[in-house]
Structures are given as structure tokens and as C-alpha cells.
Design goal:
Elements: E1 4-7, H1 14-21, H2 25-33, H3 39-47, H4 62-74, E2 78-82, H5 87-102, E3 106-110, H6 123-131, E4 136-140, H7 147-155, E5 159-163, E6 170-173, E7 176-179, E8 186-188, H8 204-218, H9 230-239, H10 246-259, H11 265-273, H12 283-300, H13 304-311, H14 315-347, E9 358-361, H15 370-381, E10 385-391, E11 394-400, H16 407-413, E12 418-424, E13 427-432, H17 437-447, E14 458-461, E15 463-464, H18 472-478, E16 493-506, E17 512-518, E18 524-530, H19 533-544, H20 546-553, E19 562-572, E20 579-588
Parallel strand pairs: 1-14, 2-3, 2-4, 4-5, 5-8, 9-10, 15-16, 18-20
Antiparallel strand pairs: 6-7, 10-11, 11-13, 12-13, 16-17, 16-19, 17-18, 19-20
Length: 589
């Protein structure tokens, strides 16, 4: 797919910033590109630590919530934690359950089944809690929008405390939005308008961690005893794809440090089962290796399995559970790959050629995979994509969007075809009758205002940096920018007209391209590209024609063919003497 490369052009005195913090101007430029504008923000970004975390008492209702739960613990009342089936919900439940057990509470937990229950607190779970003699429901990573469900709990005489981080539902009259508030006895959620907490983008597990800090303090323990849960809060912050800025960035940085020396038997087993070693884990490993395993149990089985793993105290049992979870994730990958293949075949049919919004019906796809498949198709075609599956009660779908298209607002324009929907600009979930799918697809495309320019993916280059400027010292400094993730993306560098001196294709599927590149000054550097042969072949054909392109790709680099590359530098320790190597991320003529 043709990309448009643009250079980030935010201004600042990079030399002065570099001198202030003892960093290269390249690092200063990247910090500015990430939206940092003053020296205090930059100091926190580079060196923020435990003491820079915000005071948990600033959360609205947190003291009231703790007072309620503390009383229930003292009175030996039955407390049930109700979490959710994703990474954030699992880690949130683990934090609250572990903390309440530590304080001697009569406590258990319930995790909704993705297929049978759907997301969060529902009437079945409330009724079951009542039948089980539960006195108090404590939610995590859900509950803010459970207006009717909490009303039902109150009619049963139960106490309800909500800890959540999702958007607060509202009504709108004459352009004025009024937050809806349930009958919960206390609601802890930084998204509430009246909440003074500085970081509004905490994940559910981070809210649970803050709650436990105050709970421990109320119980006469040191709040720092809750710090053991930073590992879980940081993990969930990455897993729930929260912005890695401000306090979130600090939580992830501290959480990764703890994860790399974790004492949690289940987590250690899962890390080892993924072929990883504690000590050098990055946010990437959470987002793309360990995290998806925790999620897989909630997609194809029950999330209770992942929670049991985290609570496990036997290394033997943990190893068995970790293996089962990894196998579930492998099954999820195979199912996803098959569904993505089917979705691409549909997207490339002639009748879809003019669609700017892709609506793809995969009746046999597991409904828990629809969002993943939609994301993969969105990436492949740079189109807003909605994948619909067949369910017991009609059809259900998930959508993933591009920056220029607010999916939730566009669904609002076509709500007559939907029985239920919700979401935000970049993602949405919805239900509809199967017979309405085609009309829904046509309506979305009719109301779509995306231009051809919007449909060209943009690659933002942080620094156009000649390979001659790269040094081991600079690469070590780039480590200060980690952890990478949403809101703090891995930097993108670029250099022009690099000649391909050597090219070798390897890897089981022929998708690894080992190269040696040379600039106009004669400086050579090793590089690797992971992708399809067409990614390199097509730019070469565009610039030099088919013969040169095919020769070069076959390893006959006799034409001095050169291309433009985006990249990220690293130090390759595979050889006896470490050397600088580029990981290429994009190719252009």
C-alpha cells in the first residue's frame, strides 16, 4: 500500500534542552514530538518515579468507598468482586481480591462470560450474587454504565461500590451534557466530571491499585504495601492500550521493572512458557506476547483460568495452567489467521472495490475475534473496518477505525439498522439483525465523507537522520524514551538513497530480509526488514524497472539500486563484537 511520509516539524530549542538534560538533540526532538512542552514535563518523562505518582485521595468517592468496604470487612459481610474478561479486568480483579484477602475479608469474585454474559455487570450476575447471599458488590473495570443492573442490586438490598475507568454515560439537552449516576453507594472513576484526579486516563487496574492504597492506609497498614500491585497496574495499562503519558508512563516503567523480577509464580510460568526470560521484558512483550495469552482465556474459554494462574501458589500447577493458556492463544492465532484470510478475500471482491468503509460478514468467525480481525483488515487496507459474526440472537460486530473517521458518530447516523451499539472514535461494538447487514453496509458508505487523501496511510518521521549520525551512545540514550506504546510510540527515523549492497531472504516463510546498506559517503550498515517481498520489489520496480528489481531481490546487487528507508537502530549482540543494526520499518522509492 502506498504511504505518505511526513516529517514532524514541532519547534523548540533542542540544543538547550539537550544541554539541560545531558541528552542528544535527537532525543530532545522526539520528546517535543510526543507533546512535551516544558522542562518539568520533560524531567518527569525522563526520570519520573514512585514519588511522582499522584495522591490517591484525590479520586472522587475513594474515601467513601474505602469506608464502606472497611466496614464490610470488619463485619465479615460477604463481598463479591465483579471484574471483566480482558487483561485489565483480570488484573483489576487480582489486585482487589488479593488485597481484600490480605485484610481478612470474606470475599470471592465473578468474571462474566464473554459469550453468555457480555461485558461487565449484568442482571444474571446480580441475581446470582443475591442468591449466594452476597452483601456487597465491588466492581472493577466496569460498572459506570450499569444503571439498571445496580438498581436491581439495590432492590435486593445489596451495597454496591464501583471502581471503573470507562466513559461516564450522559444525557444531552440543549447542547448541555448531564452525567448519569447510578444508585451505587460510591463510584471511583477519574472520568467523572467532579473528580479532581489529575490523570484521567488510568486503566481499571490502576484505579484498583489507587483504591487499595487508601484501603491499606485505612486498615492501619503502610500505603506502600500496596506497591506490589504496581506490576499488575503497569501490565494492564499496556494491555488495555492506554496512553503512555504522565502517570501512566511512570506506572508502566515501574511495573516493567517489577515484572522483570516478578515473584508471582503464575506470571513467571507464563513468561517462561512464552520463551521469554525475566530481566529484559519490554512493553512489546506485554502487548504482543504475554498479554494476548491472558486475553485468550477470556476469548476462547473463561477468564477465570488466567485469574487462577495469577493466584496460583504451586509451581507445578502454574506450569500446567500456563501451558494451557499458551495453547489457547495459539488456537486463537490460528482462528484469527483463518478469519483474516477470509476477510481479505471478501474485501478484494469487485463489489467492495469502491467501499471506503469495509463491512465484512464472517458468519462462522468466533465472535470474540471480530475486533482483532477488524483491526488486521484496517491495517491492511487503511479503511475503517467492521467485522460481523453470527450469534445466537442475530448478528454481532466489532469495528476498528482510522484517525479521520469517528466510528461511534458514524454509527449514530445509521442507528436505525442497529439493535445496540456503543464505542468511541477508534472502535465500536454493535448488534443488528442479519437481514440488515447489506443495508447497513450501504448506508455507512453513503454517509461516509472520507476523501482519497484520508485513505492514504501517513507515516510520521520523527527525525530524518543519516545513518552516519548513529552511535552506540545515541542508541543507549534512546532507551530513556521507553517504554513505548500508545501516546509514546517508538521513534521513526529515515534516511534517503541508501544503496542495497547485499540482500538475503531468510526465515521459514521468506519474510525476513537481511541487508547491507551504504550511503553516498561510503558508510555501510547492516539492516533487517520483516515483511513481504512486494514491499521491496514494488519500489524497486517503480524506480528501476522489473529486471533490476528482480535481480536485487534475488541477491544479485550489481545495479547500485538505492531506496529510502524508515528505521529504528539497535545494538546487535549476536556477534562476538556488538554492532549497530537497523530494523527497517518502511521502504519507498
Amino acid at each position: 500500500m502506498k504511504e505518505k511520509w511526513v516529517v514532524s516539524a514541532k519547534k523548540a530549542d533542542f540544543q538547550a534542552i539537550g544541554q539541560k538534560f545531558g541528552i542528544d538533540q535527537v532525543v530532545a526532538r522526539i520528546m517535543r514530538n510526543r507533546g512535551l512542552t516544558d522542562l518539568h514535563e520533560m524531567e518527569l518523562y525522563l526520570h519520573g518515579g514512585r514519588t511522582d505518582l499522584h495522591n490517591p485521595h484525590l479520586l472522587k468517592d475513594v474515601d467513601l468507598a474505602v469506608q464502606i468496604i472497611q466496614a464490610k470487612i470488619s463485619e465479615k459481610k460477604h463481598i463479591r468482586i465483579i471484574g471483566d474478561y480482558d487483561i485489565d479486568g483480570i488484573q483489576s480483579t487480582y489486585i482487589l481480591y488479593s488485597a481484600l484477602c490480605h485484610l481478612g475479608a470474606v470475599v470471592d469474585f465473578a468474571i462474566p462470560d464473554r459469550i453468555l454474559d457480555g461485558y461487565g455487570l449484568n442482571e444474571n450476575l446480580v441475581t446470582k450474587a443475591h442468591e449466594d447471599g452476597v452483601d456487597t458488590i465491588l466492581t472493577c473495570d466496569n460498572g459506570i454504565s450499569a444503571i439498571d443492573q445496580i438498581h436491581l442490586a439495590k432492590t435486593f438490598g445489596m451495597t454496591v461500590v464501583v471502581t471503573d475507568h470507562h466513559e461516564v454515560p450522559y444525557t444531552e439537552e440543549n447542547g448541555i451534557r448531564m452525567e448519569k449516576r447510578s444508585e451505587a453507594d460510591a463510584i471511583v472513576n477519574p472520568k467523572q466530571k467532579a473528580c479532581k484526579y489529575p490523570c484521567k486516563e488510568l486503566c481499571g487496574a490502576a484505579v484498583a491499585f489507587k483504591f487499595v492504597q487508601v484501603l491499606y492506609e485505612s486498615a492501619g497498614l503502610k500505603p506502600s504495601e500496596a506497591d506490589c500491585f504496581i506490576e499488575n497496574a503497569g501490565f494492564a495499562t499496556v494491555g488495555d492500550v492506554m496512553n503512555l503519558q504522565g502517570e501512566n508512563r511512570i506506572l508502566v516503567k515501574l511495573g516493567l521493572e517489577m515484572l522483570n523480577r516478578t515473584t508471582n509464580i503464575g506470571m513467571k510460568s507464563l513468561i517462561l512458557q512464552n520463551g521469554l526470560e525475566p530481566g529484559n521484558l519490554k512493553s512489546y512483550d506485554i502487548g504482543f506476547k504475554i498479554g494476548p495469552c491472558l486475553n485468550a482465556s477470556g476469548r476462547l474459554d473463561t477468564a477465570r483460568l488466567s485469574l487462577k494462574l495469577l493466584l496460583c501458589e504451586s509451581e507445578t500447577e502454574a506450569a500446567v495452567m500456563a501451558q494451557e493458556i499458551v495453547e489457547l492463544n495459539e488456537s486463537r492465532k490460528l482462528l484469527t489467521a483463518d478469519a483474516v484470510k477470509q476477510a481479505k478475500e471478501i474485501a478484494e471482491q469487485k463489489e467492495y472495490a469502491k467501499d471506503r468503509v469495509l463491512v465484512i460478514f464472517l458468519p462462522d468467525c468466533h465472535e470474540s475475534l471480530a475486533g482483532i480481525v477488524a483491526g488486521r483488515i484496517r491495517e491492511a487496507y487503511h479503511r475503517p473496518t467492521l467485522v460481523i459474526t453470527r450469534s445466537e440472537n442475530g448478528a454481532k460486530g466489532s469495528g476498528r477505525s482510522i484517525e479521520a473517521y469517528s466510528m461511534y458518530e458514524e454509527l449514530c447516523k445509521c442507528e436505525q439498522y442497529l439493535t445496540q451499539f456503543g464505542g468511541h472514535p477508534m472502535a465500536a461494538g454493535f448488534s443488528l439483525k442479519e437481514e440488515n447487514i447489506d443495508a447497513f453496509r450501504k448506508a455507512l458508505n453513503k454517509t461516509c465523507t472520507l476523501t482519497e487523501e484520508d485513505l492514504i496511510p501517513k507515516v510520521v518521521i520523527d527525525v530524518p537522520m543519516p545513518i552516519s549520525y548513529i552511535s552506540e551512545g545515541l542508541i543507549h540514550q534512546l532507551g530513556l524514551l521507553e517504554p513505548f506504546g500508545k501516546g509514546n510510540e517508538k521513534p521513526v527515523f529515515a534516511d534517503r538513497n541508501l544503496t542495497i549492497e547485499r540482500l538475503r531472504i531468510c526465515g521459514k516463510e521468506g519474510r525476513v530480509f537481511q541487508m547491507q546498506l551504504r550511503n553516498s559517503a561510503g558508510i555501510s550498515i547492516d539492516a533487517v526488514y520483516f515483511g513481504d517481498a512486494e514491499d521491496i520489489l514494488l519500489p524497486l520496480e517503480e524506480k528501476y524497472g522489473k529486471v533490476v528489481a528482480q535481480d536485487t531481490l534475488a541477491g544479485r546487487c550489481i545495479h547500485n539500486a538505492s531506496l529510502h528507508f524508515t528505521y529504528y537502530p539497535k545494538i546487535d549482540t549476536y556477534y562476538e563484537t556488538p554492532r549497530i543494526k537497523l530494523t527497517l520499518t518502511g521502504v519507498s522509492a
